[in-house]
Write a structure and sequence with these properties.
Number of helices: 3
Number of strands: 2
Shape: rod-shaped
Length: 86
């Protein structure tokens, strides 16, 4: 699953209920929304952090492969193209 899909499919763990509910439930929709939004932001941040870590590892491996290939100019060219794209 791609990062966008993972973020969009973060499960809601807040449930609305009437008085006397049990577990992670709220009778106030505002509080439920606020806590659910907070939890989703934190979950999305964790997913983004994992994705960033994978990107950094891939960048490192690509750099090593290009340097070992005997064509370090390819790495410099690739880096400049990445910077242009950002």
């Amino acid at each position: 699953m791609d990062l966008h899909a993972e973020i969009m499919n973060i499960p809601a763990n807040i449930v609305l209920t009437g008085p006397g509910g049990v577990g992670n439930v709220h009778s106030n929709p505002y509080i439920a929304y606020k806590e659910g939004h907070r939890d989703a932001r934190h979950a999305a941040a964790e997913l983004a952090l994992r994705a960033q870590s994978r990107i950094e590892k891939l960048e490192y491996l690509l750099e090593e492969v290009l340097k070992d290939s005997g064509f370090p100019c390819l790495f410099d060219e690739l880096q400049s193209k990445i910077q242009e794209a950002l």
